[in-house]
Amino acid sequence: MHLRSLFLPIVAAGRRDITERVIQLLVGLFLYGVALGLMVRGGIGVAPWDVLSLGVSGTTGIGYGMVTNLVAVVVLLLWIPLRQRLGLGTVLNAMLIGPSADLTLWLLPPAPSVWLGAPLFLLGLVLLAFATGLYIAADFGPGPRDGLMTGLVARTGWPVWIVRTLIEGSVLVIGFLLGGPVGVGTVLFAFGVGPLIGWFLPAVTRIRTRRSAQLAARR
To answer: What is the chain's Cα-based Rg?
Structure first.
């Protein structure tokens, strides 16, 4: 991993464009953590990586947000043999999502029933897809988990869906064995997050590209 790569997108862009993209990145990462907190408070199951984080949190007593950050750091260490390049967004992803999730959990109590929990989870799922579109479209590098997937695809030559399934499945099993919550929300996430991101990401990217072109034309 090369620290110089953190600044490659910045060198190639104008100051106003950089500022707007950084704000977009920060907002996206903050909302991503909020979305995780909403899904946890929904109480009907969470995404595979959060099954792992909650399982580790319950086993060790370390807060969920801190565990989320620590898992991201461990995943980044796995980038080293894969020779993946860090981006500014990669580092901020590993640092900011956990505190944002913890803040949401502190402000929001658990849903008292499934009738409130299910809509809360769905709100979190939609918000997570939107937040993913924001931070990816800012174009400051992939998140730690996405980079692990793309790195393994590049090294093994296996199809993306096989690598993604193996990663998510392994994480889910480990988290479940540690006592992480698996439920209908886990299934909803597995089948719903892809189509939602597939809708939000192109839309946000188009808006960001149009805005960057406008700013470039003014220079």
So the answer is: 18
Under a CB-based contact definition with an 8 Å cutoff, are residues 82 and 155 in contact?
yes
What φ, ψ does residue 82 adopt, rounded to 5°?
-85, -10
Residues in CB range of 120: below 8 A, 6 or more apart: 38, 39, 41, 42, 111
Max CA-CA distance within the chain?
A: 56
Contact 33, 100 (CB under 8 A): yes
* pLDDT tens per residue across span 131-145: 988 998 898 988 898
Instruction: Name the pTM for this structure.
Output: 0.86
Does position 10 have pLDDT exceeding 80, yes or no? no
| DSSP codes of every residue in 84-151 | PPP-HHHHHHHHHHHHHHHHHHHHSPPPSSHHHHHHHHHHHHHHHHHHHHHHHHTTS---HHHHHHHH
Measure the CA–CA gap between 160 and 162, rounded to whole angstroms. 5
Tokens 């099993």 belong to 173
Amino acid (1-letter code) at residue 101: A
**DSSP assignments along 152-192, one per residue:** HHHHH---HHHHHHHHHHHHHHHHHHTT---SHHHHHHHHH
Q: How far apart are CA 95 and CA 78, in angstroms?
A: 17
